[in-house]
Design brief:
Distance between the termini: 14 Å
CATH topology of the largest domain: Rossmann fold
Number of strands: 16
Radius of gyration: 20 Å
Number of domains: 2
Structural class: alpha/beta
CATH architecture of the largest domain: 3-Layer(aba) Sandwich
Shape: globular
CATH superfamily of the largest domain: NAD(P)-binding Rossmann-like Domain
CATH class of the largest domain: Alpha Beta
């Protein structure tokens, strides 16, 4: 252990506008002891997600992060000591470890993970990102071969996997991403049929060209104007899987789109469904076996964006919200 010191990154205040480095502070504490039913963990990798920003606004599907506390976040960690049945030193687990070197966490809030090389895959393709993509697309979006699937934030951790699974299922796949480089990467490396650069501004028109037969399934990671542009081009009985609304998380909430939604939903008999990946954990084994076989056969490419150093976590989250990452962003503690 690092001479009994536990480095922690605290959220100092809840941002009212855009998140900045000034909202965080590095601090030091002692290494906690595991109480009955808990395990002491050494954090290896911290997952960075747009949802981290949403938690600062208030309670979502988890309690809000309060000022002057360790910033919350999921992580992959190694068990150092355990006072809980079923967990032993050396086990690898996933849980809400927070942004710190060590954490004592109740065993009931931890998922034991398989030993996988590289360990980073446990946070990307075999973690929340891969499972969110899998269940959101297949169970909520229900694509059929030959249908058109559109995914926003397509170069991100979830979107990049959604598009590839849709291709595996025989769909025409269009990704929406920011910047020419990301769009080229989607079509040349990941096998998307087309990509729309939202930074060009003319999303509606570009979508019409990329998806001439209309949209059957839209996997929404951003909300706002892009959701509005996609809804207008949905086919009858189309499905919208609502995964996130990153355009609304950072800074002042926007008053824009989507407009005209109720009428469109009625006329086109659309299904719009929000979901959270934990709803599907009973089917996790089946999902993991599919994901593992696709990765092994080369049908599913894994893109990870690993930043080194706990001290760089705030900067890495701010960059993620600005769309810097390609694939799953995480911090190696």
């Amino acid at each position: 252990m690092s001479d009994g010191v536990n480095r922690q990154i605290l959220l100092m205040e809840k941002p009212t506008g855009k998140l900045g480095p000034e909202h965080f502070k590095m601090s030091k504490a002692g290494i906690p002891d595991a109480r009955d039913g808990e395990a002491l963990l050494r954090v290896r990798y911290i997952s960075l997600d747009a949802a981290n920003r949403a938690w600062m606004h208030g309670a979502t599907y988890r309690a809000a992060v309060e000022p002057n506390t360790v910033m919350a976040g999921g992580g992959i960690a190694e068990v150092i000591s355990s006072k809980a049945p079923g967990l032993a030193p050396g086990d690898i687990v996933f849980g809400d470890t927070g942004w710190q070197d060590y954490a004592a966490v109740p065993a009931k809030h931890l998922s034991k993970m398989p030993k996988v090389e590289p360990m980073t895959h446990l946070l990307s393709v075999y973690g929340i990102a891969g499972l969110t993509a899998y269940f959101g697309l297949l169970d909520v979006g229900k694509p059929k071969a030959g249908e058109t699937v559109v995914v926003s934030a397509a170069a991100g951790s979830v979107g990049s996997i959604v598009g590839q699974i849709a291709k595996i299922k025989g769909c025409h796949v269009v990704g929406i991403a920011g910047g020419k480089d990301k769009c080229n990467w989607l079509t040349s490396e990941l096998g998307f049929d087309a990509a729309v650069d939202y930074k060009d501004g003319a999303v509606f028109k570009a979508l019409r060209t990329a998806a001439p037969k209309g949209i059957d399934v839209y996997f929404d990671n951003v909300g706002g104007d892009i959701l509005e542009a996609c809804l207008a081009q949905m086919n009858n009985r189309g499905r919208v899987a609502c995964c996130g609304a990153i355009s609304q998380y950072d800074g002042a909430p926007s008053a824009t789109g989507p407009r005209g939604v109720p009428g469109l939903i009625v006329i086109k008999r659309l299904v719009m469904q929000g979901f959270i990946v934990t709803d599907f954990m009973g089917q996790r084994d089946e999902a993991l076996s599919d994901l593992q076989s696709w990765v092994a056969s080369g049908k599913l490419k894994v893109q990870e964006d690993v930043i080194n150093g706990l001290e760089n976590t705030p900067k890495a989250l701010i960059g993620l919200l600005a769309g810097e990452n390609r694939g799953k962003r995480m911090v190696k503690v």
